[in-house]
Every structure is written in structure tokens, then in C-alpha cells.
Amino acid sequence: MTLLNNPLRTALAPLLVALVLAGCASAPAIDPAALPTAPAAFKEGDGRWTQAVAPADAPSDGTWWKAFADPVLDGLVDRALERNNSIQIAAARLAQSRALLQATDADRSIQVGVGADVTRQGGALANASGAAGTLVRAGANFSWELDLFGRLAQASNAAALDADSRAALLHSARLVVQADVARGYLAVRALDAERALVRETVGAYRDTLALTERRFEAGDIAELDVARVRTELAATESDALGLDRRRAELEHALAVLVGDAASDFRLDVADWRTALPVIPAGVPSTVLVRRPDIAAARQSMLAAQARVGVAQAAWFPNIALTGSGGFASPDLGDLFKWSARSWGIGALLSLPILDGGRRDAGVRNANAELDAALAGYREQVLVAFKDVEDQLSSLRLLADQGEAQSRAVASASRATVLSDVRYRNGLVSQLDLLDARRSELRNRREALQVRAAQYQATVGLVRALGGGWGPTESGGVAAARTAPGRAGG
């Protein structure tokens, strides 16, 4: 018994030592102090925002854009979700990562193969009679690596986390496209309203010019007054052409988002009746956990953590069980006879001793990737809170600005009316009337621009919060049914 045990104990000694050291191959823990700290509450919002929590992987799939109550916008977003190339690229990347996960998991399974070969041997490999001979073999073989040190399991875990990260990036691509379509569409609608106002002003200036030219021909006014009106008319026409150019660019950008050629895409001019969603009071800051880009960064960090364990496991031996079974015969006709059967089983242990520092470099590289992923996650979270604060402050200040601008429009309109009456009565010059009209135009346009900025900031807040702001809604939020064309008087 002792004679049998001693060789066995000697053969298994390296394996036993490796098993004792296996715990060193586990992935390192992440220091909680290195993770980003969520603020107690958002700075903006006048205290309406509840306790913020650390982001997690729970992206939202809500149809938040329906809160704008615009069927044209709904159709554009639906087309973009179906045909946008950025979304399709992200979906392909997800499919690729899932295929890589399947390939990684396959390394943990038993590998089985079949084969056959014919060998002609002579010389030192000849048979007992010294003559060259032929050996025909056919059979199956299998191998299975014993993952005693968790290398394969951690590699599979890292691949699964990569797939989760890609899934979150797909959600992020969808949210970005939804927001870009909404912003582009609302910008076009705002330009349409502004163009209509400018065209109306151009018409008014043309009427004024015609009247001014008749008065000049009659000798009632000097040529200077005609030159001033012509200047205002030309400048306003130039403004209108600039708005036309900007609208064409936005329309072309929308075509790309919905997967159409710019030459084939047209967004017809219509009344701007898109509702402006209203932020409900007391929205919880916990909705920030739904941001898909944060979920992707978190999963990438965890994948990098798992790969450190994979790199550390390279210091331990690979142990595999192997086996084969089949038939071997010098005569093809006798190959599948029972007497020609052959089989074999074995175990393989492999442990590199000198590798020029390759494994040590692999561990250091994996640790560096983990540090980079952790820093990227922290940065993503900080940017997320910054995005929310930006949009909240924009909405608050734009609301105040809109109220002030409404008062300015009302005052400018009244000043124009009074100046027109005084001009007809000969109490003020035409220059005073033109100044009043120019002031009214400027204030009406600024009111439209403030209104457009409110739409943009609302979409920006939705995107910053990960798609909507209700804790359980499917993207629905309260909407104010205010016609944008009526904004500011």
C-alpha cells in the first residue's frame, strides 16, 4: 500500500499546492471610497427633488415623447427607432458581444470531436518484420478543462458583463436618437414660426416702403427716409433667408436620423401646436438610475474587475481530462471489427515556468484597465448629475425669462401702436416709427426663441434623466396645451 501511495502523493503534490493558492486568483474588490458619491439632492428645483441615489443598471424604455402630443413627432421617432443606422450599429454590437459570450462559455464545456487518419510507416517506425506498414484509425476524442481556479468562470462572467454593457449602450443609442429627433423636429417647428413672423414683417416693410416712396415722389419727405426703409427691408429679407438656410440644414439632419436620404425627405410646414410638457412637482431624483450610459459604464467596470481575476489565474496550472476511443487496424477491411478497438484516457497538467514576464504584464494591464474603467464610471456619473443640473437651471431661468419677455412683447406692441398713431398725426418722425416696429419684431422673435429653448431644455432633461421623469410611467408626463405661436403675446 505504501508503494502505491507514495508515487500518487508525489504526482498530486503540485496540484494540491495549486489548490491551496487558488484563492489568490479571485478578482480584487473595488474600494467603495473610489465609487462616485451621489449628492443629497439636486441643487436646482427649489427643494422639490428628493434624495438622490447612486445610479444602477435599469434603463427606461418609456415613450416619453408622446407627452408633446404631436403626431408628426410620434411618427418621426417611430421611423427613427426602426431605421436609424446608429441604433442598428448598436444592435449589431450587442449581437456580437452575445456571440462572444457564447464562445467564451463554450470553453467550459466538454469538447468532443471525431476523426480518421491513414498512416504509412517505415524505417524506425516499421513493424516487427521490418517492412513498411499502413495503419488506419477512426474514432472520437474528448477533452474537458477542469476550471479549478476559476479562470474560465471569470472569463465568462466578464463576457456576460460586456454583453450587458452593450445592451445598455443600445438603450443609450435609442434614447440619444429619440432626443435628437425631438430636438431637431422642435427646432424646425420653432424656425417655421420665426420665419412666418419675419415674412410678416417683410410684408409690413414693403407696404411701408411703397407708402414712403409715394410720399417722397410727392415731395413730403426726404430721400433719407426712403433709404432707411429700404435698409430695414433688405436686412429683414436677409434675416429671412438665413432662417431658410438653417431650416434646410435641420431638415436634412432629421432625414439622416430617420434613415432617409436628404433629397427624399420633406417636413411640411404646419402650425406649431406641440404641447410643452410641464415638470410635476416632487419628481424623485432616483430616476437618474435609469440612465443607460451609466449602466453601460458600470457593467464595463465590473467586466474589467473580472478580467483582473482572469489574468491572475494565468499563474496557476491548466488541468484537463482527455480521452479517446475508436478503432485502429493495418487493414481497412478489419477497421471496425471488435478486435480492432482502441481507447485511452489521460489527464494533462500544464504550468509555464518562465514566460519572460508575460503573465505579470497581463495582471498589471488588467489592473490598469480596471482603474480606467472605474475612472470612466465616476466621470459618467458626475456628467449625469451635471446634465440634470444644467437642464433644471435652464428650465427655471427660461421660465423667468419667458415671463419677462412676454412683458417686453406687450410693451413693444403698445409702443408700435402709439408710434403709428403719432406718426400719422405728424407728431413723430418715420424713424421713430421704424424703431418701434424693429423693437417689436426683435422682442417677438426673442419670445419665440425663449419658447424654443424651453422645448430643447425639456427634451434635454428627459435625456439627462434616462428617458422621462416619472418613477413608473411609460414616458408620460404632464403637458401644457399651450400653442407655441401664442407665446409672448
TrEMBL record:
The residues forming a coiled coil are: 431-458
Q: Which family does it belong to?
A: Belongs to the outer membrane factor (OMF) (TC 1.B.17) family.
- NCBIfam families to which the protein is assigned, alphabetical: outer_NodT
Which keywords label this protein? Coiled coil, Lipoprotein, Membrane, Palmitate, Signal, Transmembrane, Transmembrane beta strand
Recorded topology in the membrane: Lipid-anchor
Q: Where is the signal peptide?
A: 1-29
Q: Does the keyword Transmembrane apply?
A: yes
Q: Which PANTHER family match?
A: BLR4455 PROTEIN (PTHR30203:SF33), OUTER MEMBRANE CATION EFFLUX PROTEIN (PTHR30203)
Q: What name appears for this protein in its UniProt entry?
A: Efflux transporter outer membrane subunit
Presence of keyword Membrane: yes
Name the major location.
membrane
Q: Where in the cell is it found?
A: Cell membrane
InterPro entries for the chain: MdtP/NodT-like (IPR010131), OMP_efflux (IPR003423)
